[in-house]
Amino acid sequence: MIEAKEINFAYRRGIPVLNDINCKIEDGEFVALIGHNGSGKTTLSRMFMALDHPRSGQILVDGEDIINYEPADLADKVGYVFQNPDLQILADTVYEEIAYGPRVKKLPEENIKTNVKSAIAAMGLKGLEGIYPRNLSFGQKRRLGVAAALALNPRILILDEITNGQDAVEQAAMMEYLKALNEEKGTTVILITHDMNVVRKYARRAIVLTDGHLVFDGKPQELFQGDQPVERWGLRRPVVSVLASRLGLSAANCEEFCEAVRKGGEA
Amino acid sequence: MNSVVSVSDFYFKYLRSELVLKNINLEIEKGSFTVIIGPSGAGKTTLCKAMTGIVPYYSGGDYAGDVKVLGETTKGKKVSDLAMKVGLMLEDYESQLVSLTAGEEVAFSLLNHGFPPEEAEERTRLALEDVGLPGRESYQLDELSGGQRQRLALASLLAVHPEIIVLDEPVSAMDPDGGESLYKLLDKIHKEHGTTFIVVEHRVEFVLPYLTNLVAIKNGEVAVQGKCEEVVSRIYEDAELRPLLPELWQVKCSLEKKTGRTFKLWRSADEAAKELQSEGFGKGVRA
Fold it and tell me: What is the interface pTM, i.e. ipTM, of the complex?
């Protein structure tokens, strides 16, 4: 469980980045953290990993103030994948990169092998084990970042814009994996994203930040229904949602929409 | 066709990677707004780097064939000289940022190319305005968000006034407002200066109103290339490439198959809704 209590934050220039943020994310939730660039999403999520600290307010992880955690203990609970994968790549090969965390934790070599293997399979990096990470494509580097976090089996996984640079097929594979992880192992997933199709399809809760203020906290369906000022918050409804409502149809995806149009057209 | 970039029988393989480009034959039409799509790892970024001389200049590997930019081969050319004709923004744009402040960053290549300081300063000011970062000259890079740093990298290109601009996933870190306004800006430059744009893009929906040509790359080869009107349905027919089309065009192609009708190449959801309504599709609108 992660809780933000009355969080305020400003960088050096003193312009407020987060204003009185309150939210509580329970174990097993699948939360999308969304908002325009500079809205404070990354800053807030970094606090959940003690990478930044609030000027005032408190972050609680499992009821305990985050400042009381040793980094290693926090890393046992929370995994964080950076928006820029280059910031977290340290090792000379894909395999060693993923094994880095488990090695620091001094896991037995057997366990390290198993964890790395399953993380590699999960992120579609098979066959790339011996490659120098800087030679990977950007999308592959992102998946490497996620794999490295997965290898530590965190209970809470924070992912900052990991779907960027992924093609549609890879993105779907990655999201399906996270969905299974969330549903089967109960891993809490906190996903920062600009992709509203991903939000609609996978998240069960959406938290919207605008200029450092929390303006929406609820179900994605409610967010896209039409009575929320989504555009004013710098977001967009998915194309199919827009088309369907313009034509007075109900459809959640391309297939349903085309079927509804075909039927509507014949009526 | 008047090409600004022409790639012929191009082959490239990195030394420490399996990634390969093979049999690439590609013409980029002068003044076009060309979008390159393809699965990750298909070689799109490598192709961008080849068109700007970075491959093979900085990345060693096996190389065959030829890449011509504005009629001249890139072989033996210095990347910094090519950069005055063809600007490149990498997807990994952070790796392009080399300075402490935003102003220094934009002025960097200008000063290196011997522009007088006053002109570099003026171009820096205008370029920062163009990308929506007016007056941020003194900002340190870590005071800018990811999306803002990306626009800064773009400003550094614009300041040089190149004839061709190559962008590798320019809106990947941007929110919808940012993505839309960036492409609006690129469209403005495209129209005003006749700059040829070559953009690798997974989020084609942002560039829908503007793109003129499409290139689809698969397994290191060019699968389809041509004007959008001519190639969209061919891309849709390829199961591997279909999901890379913007959702709106997937809806169009799917509807055409289901209804046997032909629709315009919609450039926005609004245009699509209007045509579908006028054709009598949807509830309660059929006369």
Answer: 0.81
